[in-house]
């Protein structure tokens, strides 16, 4: 954002020390320097312009006008008006925020025109008195913090509960909200009926602030969340070695809602790691096992997306190396948790509580602080080292790989998969088989597969099939329509026949 310009006005000789102190403080205070840039007339270089023109133009261009009123009235122009009073009037005419500080407890001993100016100010706005430089600084600090709060540049509560600046209800996707309702009802018995309106859903989840969508609402249901929260994207990279080095074999930047981000990032990792496929010796279903359990990958990524610091300019990074998976997010542990406590039962302390609740309702996360414990248990069961947690300019989860070792699966063997086909061929074949009989919606496909809800794996398979032109939309001009279905193409029928003959593709 552009800095907020502060024009500091006064009789320069009388307040030379205060003005310099305020300028230096505004430029060095950790909070103030993030937002404000002070302007002092004495800092202006020599120029071929009249002084009164320069300072009045600066007042018109500033955002905040700070006036220091003391004993002297200052230089008077041909009309008997001082620069300080001219500046004050100019700030009012341009509707600038005016913050006036009067030095001294009473007005005795002041220039008569300064007394008149103080009375004028008192009739128009609230003025503050101060005795020392420390009191002036404290008073200005409080006034500027209030300014930042009123303009929604800083907050008292969680970031996700604050209103999303410049966003309206029209920036939210009603289809996404309807989908969420159905999933939450099936997963957790969410009390609202599926025909509930978007406004009723947002109100129930506390995702509105004075009728405006919060940051959490935008991250959960936004049409284009990254338009308002640029760094909320997730960056995924796959390296063949053990160091982050160019060229990067595979790199993706995912955008969308938090649900989209988690699903896409998980699919990215699962498409790159080894998958072992067994035989049907024990039953009709072919046993499969990924080298890292999908639940572990999903937990690491959803934790990064759910608990990250969304005020940071950094994005979640998912990096797959030859020996490990690293998931980094710009955030830190809450004060009540330590790295050691993460390895044992602990309370749930979400950094973004309004974001966490809908993720819980759709079973992306739990609310009991059991996620890291589950990751440890599943890694041990899969024969992997326990996950590592660390804080390094953010929070890092590291999951070690055991390349070349086959999980405990009867008669299993590794399957080599091309980069363009991230999901298992068995699911691909089943989807094509279903569409070979009839055109179906995504939810109908999911139901026919025996899934309770549309999985990220199914979403990825359908995306691949669409890209390969083996299936197509029944409503190609309306890809997001709730009536959308999928049908198999001639190319898809040929592929299905090949798969059924057991040939490699």
Could you please describe the fold and organization of this structure?
This protein is α/β, with parallel strands linked by helices. The protein folds into four domains: 4-150, Rossmann fold (3-Layer(aba) Sandwich), CATH 3.40.50.450; 159-228, no CATH class; 230-413, Heat Shock Protein 90 (2-Layer Sandwich), CATH 3.30.565; 419-500, Arc Repressor Mutant, subunit A. Helices cover 38% and strands 15% of the residues. The chain contains 18 helices and 18 strands. The strands form five sheets. A six-stranded mixed β-sheet has the order 9-8-12-13-15-14, with helices on one face. Strands 2-1-3-4-5 form a five-stranded parallel β-sheet, with helices on both faces. Helix 12 packs antiparallel against helix 14. The longest helix is centred in the first third of the chain and has 18 residues, at 133-150. The two termini are 51 Å apart. The relative contact order is 0.07. Residues 406-425 have low confidence and may be disordered.
The separation of the N and C termini measures: 51 Å
What is the domain total for the residues? Answer: 4
CATH architecture of the largest domain: 2-Layer Sandwich
| Category from helices, strands and their pairing | alpha/beta
């Amino acid at each position: 954002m552009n800095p907020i310009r502060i024009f500091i006005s006064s009789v320069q000789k009388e307040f030379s020390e205060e003005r310099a102190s305020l300028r230096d403080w505004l430029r060095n205070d950790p909070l103030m320097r993030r937002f404000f840039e002070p302007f002092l007339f004495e800092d202006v270089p020599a120029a071929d312009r009249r002084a009164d023109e320069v300072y009045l133009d600066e007042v018109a261009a500033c955002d905040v006008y700070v006036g220091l009123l003391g004993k002297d009235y200052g230089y008077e122009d041909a009309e008997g008006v001082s620069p300080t009073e001219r500046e004050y009037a100019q700030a009012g005419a341009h509707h600038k925020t005016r913050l006036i500080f009067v030095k001294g407890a009473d007005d005795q001993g002041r220039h008569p025109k300064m007394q008149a100016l103080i009375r004028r100010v008192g009739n128009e706005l609230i003025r503050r008195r101060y005795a020392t430089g420390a009191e002036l600084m404290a008073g200005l600090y409080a006034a500027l913090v209030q300014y930042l709060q009123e303009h929604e540049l800083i907050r008292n509560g969680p970031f996700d509960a604050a209103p999303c600046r410049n966003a309206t209800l029209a920036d939210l996707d009603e289809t996404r909200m309807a989908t969420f309702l159905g999933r939450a009802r099936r997963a957790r018995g969410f009390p609202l009926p599926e025909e509930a309106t978007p406004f009723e859903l947002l109100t129930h989840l506390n995702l509105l602030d004075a009728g405006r969508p919060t940051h959490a609402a935008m991250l959960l249901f936004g049409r284009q969340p990254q338009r308002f929260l640029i760094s909320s994207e997730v960056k995924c990279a796959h390296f063949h070695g053990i160091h982050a080095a160019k060229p990067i074999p595979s790199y993706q930047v995912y955008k969308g809602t938090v649900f989209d981000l988690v699903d896409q990032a998980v699919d990215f990792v699962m498409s790159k790691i080894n998958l072992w496929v067994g035989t049907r010796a024990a039953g009709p279903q072919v046993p499969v096992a990924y080298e890292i359990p999908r639940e572990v990958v999903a937990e690491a990524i959803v934790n990064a997306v759910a608990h990250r610091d969304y005020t940071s300019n950094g994005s979640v990074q998912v990096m797959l190396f030859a020996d490990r998976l690293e998931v980094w997010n710009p955030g830190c542990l809450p004060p009540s948790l330590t790295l050691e406590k993460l390895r044992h039962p602990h309370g749930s302390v979400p950094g973004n509580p309004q974001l966490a609740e809908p993720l819980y309702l759709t079973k992306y996360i739990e609310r009991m602080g059991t996620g890291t414990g589950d990751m440890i248990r599943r890694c041990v069961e899969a024969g992997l080292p326990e996950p590592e947690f660390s804080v390094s300019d953010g929070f890092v989860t590291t999951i070690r790989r055991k390349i070349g070792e086959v999980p405990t699966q009867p008669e299993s063997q590794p399957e080599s998969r091309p980069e363009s086909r991230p999901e298992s061929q068995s699911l691909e074949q089943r989807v094509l088989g279903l569409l070979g009989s009839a055109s179906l919606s995504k939810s109908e496909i999911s139901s026919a597969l025996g899934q309770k809800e549309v999985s990220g794996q199914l979403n990825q398979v359908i995306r691949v099939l669409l890209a390969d032109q083996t299936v197509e939309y029944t409503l190609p001009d309306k890809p997001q329509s709730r009536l959308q279905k999928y049908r198999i193409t001639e190319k898809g029928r040929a592929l299905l026949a090949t798969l059924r003959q057991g040939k490699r593709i």
